[in-house]
Write a structure and sequence with these properties.
Layout: E1 2-6, H1 16-31, E2 36-41, H2 48-51, E3 57-61, H3 69-87, E4 91-94, E5 106-111, H4 119-122, H5 126-138, E6 142-145, H6 148-155, E7 163-165, H7 180-190, E8 197-200, H8 209-221, E9 228-231, H9 238-247, E10 254-257, H10 262-271, E11 274-277, H11 286-293, E12 298-301, H12 304-310, E13 315-317, H13 322-333, H14 336-349, H15 355-372
Helix pairs in contact: 1-15, 8-9, 8-13, 11-14
Amino acid sequence: MRVGLNATCFNGRPSGAKQRFLGLYGELFKIMPDTQFIIFEPRDYSFKFHFHNFQNVKCIKTILPSEGRIKKALLGFLFWPIFLRLQKLDILEGFNLPSISHPNVYTFHTIHDVRSTNNNFSGWEYFIALPLHRRSIHRVNHIITVSHSMKKEIQNLDVSTPITVIYNGISDSYSDDFKNEDILKVKEKFNINDNFFLSVGHFEKRKNYLNLIKTMKLLKDDGFNIPLFIIGNDNGEKKAVLDLVEEFDLIGQVFILSHLSNLEVKVFYSLASLFIFPSLYEGFGIPILEAMSSKTPIVMSDLEVFKELTNEKYVYFDPHDVSSMVEKIKFVLNNPKVTETFRDFGSKRVNDFTFDGLAVQLKSLYDQVKESNHLQ
């Protein structure tokens, strides 16, 4: 069986989608050694470094860039029909819009979220995104998505295409990939004290960092002078966050960090007293897994997907209401037994999200297609 993976949306920039691809499919390649996988790369990034040890994986460079939606879509319109005819695939899986398909190939499409169909976050793009999502979903054979909450959202787009949920994952060694000397280096580099808050995610509107800064101002006024570190790269909202930090005189208490290494982020998780996740919208929430793996207490937005991932065992606030955020953070800080409960539960719950276990689920889905289509 020959499986093509359209990985042209990935590049050197870290993202939850890329993390899933490397972790989940790296495990899938191990347990499907008789299947030939072909990774279609963008012209500006290569996966050979990640998967060079697999005899059943081949990387093919395409003419498509990893970024630039319009240019990429136009090039893809000309490129994919001819290119796919030459590949003789049995299964094709894509990870970005617009989806691609071939009449003789069973096609999967993985969807992480549909935030561009929500005009609170996409603006004018909403009018393009909604019909684009519907068309892309209808033209493939099967949708894979990352949570049951997201499955409901996709179904609300009037979708008849079958949908399977396979969670995002995390390496079972995530919190063991650094040493004491690494911790000392990070503490010295960033001047970290023993008690601080942490939030992780790129700087964009849906991450709700402006309300988090307002929350920090109210906490400071109430005598809670605990530092906050926000780790993420800029997606258009970073300047507004920095301006609000300055306006509220929180320089020296709120620290904005970008372009950290994976190891440095892991150390921050391990040292944080509390992880705050204030998002207005998420399709999943990988930082929840990272915090649970690091045995870090979490207080988070009252989102359906967050409750799904945590089995409603944590403390949740209204992300639109700063007073709710303040109240719930204070509650956790003032109840040490609650934080211990979080640590115990999280360290167990995160075992449901290991990449090797999720790869078994994905293999089962591929096997169903292989059997029903009589593939070799």
